[in-house]
Design goal:
Layout (H helix, E strand, L loop, with lengths): L1 H5 L1 H19 L10 E9 L3 H14 L1 E9 L1 H9 L5 E4 L5 H8 L6 E15 L6 E3 H8 L10 E3 L5 H10 L9 E3 L3 H10 L4 E5 L1 H4 L6 H4 L2 E3 L1 E3 L6 E2 L3 H5 L6 E8 L6 H10 L1 H10 L2 E2 L20
Parallel strand pairs: 1-2, 1-3, 5-10, 6-7, 6-8
Antiparallel strand pairs: 3-12, 4-8, 4-9, 4-12, 4-13, 10-11
């Protein structure tokens, strides 16, 4: 005790070092993770997996980072986040008020970054000659109205974001059971629809713009349907241009939700995807970026043409 009184600066230094050590032990940060370095697990809505696969591949090629992607349905993904399975996720909607409060109760304020816009697409087999479908017909089918021309809908998963989206449009809490089919993956939807005339598949358009090698042959056997909106302004395909102009009626925004609570890879990855390189990847994929990356043009006063030899 006398030594501490005699050397007050030494005592202060020891107290400061003890405080820092306690803070580090209490931190949720794992290993040497920073915004551009380390390892983490990220959940992704399975309807969005192709575009996020591309983003992770480029991000890892530029930085000393390893991101393990786990694809889940929307409902499973939210439950996993709330149960601390992972604190980073890519969703087609922001967190609800109750979901955000659940994280705030843990003294974590979720950070939401909008990264682009995609769309829900309707597909049919090539044997269906009509490539047009009215959104009103789909909604009437979901509501059980007999005047609908739709015979059956096929979803990837009963807990998926596409099911939730269509239920919201139809004003339903749960999906009807009659003539509605669900599988485990978007690949299953594409394959089933290609082999069954009269079925309408419902899936994220990213699976059509960026099909896996195994799915390219199967996709040749389906039609992507043009959809008429509820205001009857015409039929439009889920193209990048139609999404940008607000003509396609089933567009939805995409978000990275970061609930890490510290400066980790969640923050770095979200900044990367929202930045120039990430937005170029989204643009190239056929989806709509939040901001269209600029192009650098070189203007020359003269052009030198070398004579042919």
């Amino acid at each position: 005790m006398k030594n501490f009184v005699k050397y007050p600066y030494l005592a202060a230094a020891l107290v400061f070092m003890l405080f820092i050590a306690c803070k580090q032990s209490d931190s949720p940060k794992k290993g040497n993770e920073t915004i551009l370095k380390g390892k983490t697990t990220m959940l992704v809505d399975e309807t969005l997996k192709p575009i996020i696969d591309d983003q992770v591949e480029v991000f890892e090629s530029k930085y000393d980072a390893k991101i393990t992607l786990v694809a889940k349905s929307e409902r499973e993904l939210i439950n996993a986040m709330l149960n601390d399975t992972s604190s980073i996720a890519v969703l087609s909607r922001p967190l609800s008020g109750d979901e955000a409060k659940a994280f705030q109760s843990k003294k974590i304020v979720p950070k939401t970054t909008k990264i682009g816009t995609d769309a829900i697409a309707f597909i049919s087999s090539k044997s269906r000659k009509d490539t047009l479908i009215a959104l009103e017909d789909v909604i009437m089918f979901l509501q059980g109205k007999e005047q609908s021309s739709v015979k059956g809908l096929v979803f990837d998963n009963p807990n998926s974001s596409t099911v939730r989206y269509m239920n919201d449009l139809a004003g339903l809490k749960e999906m009807r059971e009659k003539d509605v089919f669900s599988f485990k993956t978007n690949e299953d939807v594409i394959k089933y629809v290609s082999e069954n005339e009269g079925m309408i598949g419902v899936l994220g358009v990213n699976w059509l713009s960026q099909p896996t090698a195994d799915m390219r042959k199967i996709i040749k056997n389906i039609n992507v349907l043009n959809v008429k909106s509820l205001n009857n302004i015409g039929y439009f395909a889920p193209s990048q241009n139609n999404i940008a102009e607000g003509k396609y009626p089933l567009a939805r925004d995409l978000y990275i939700i970061n609930c890490q609570g510290y400066s980790g890879l969640g923050m770095g990855f979200a900044s990367f995807v929202a930045g120039d390189i990430g937005q170029r990847i989204i643009l190239k994929s056929g989806l709509l970026p939040v901001r269209v990356p600029g192009r650098n043009m070189i203007i020359r006063n003269s052009i030198n043409i070398e004579p042919k030899k």
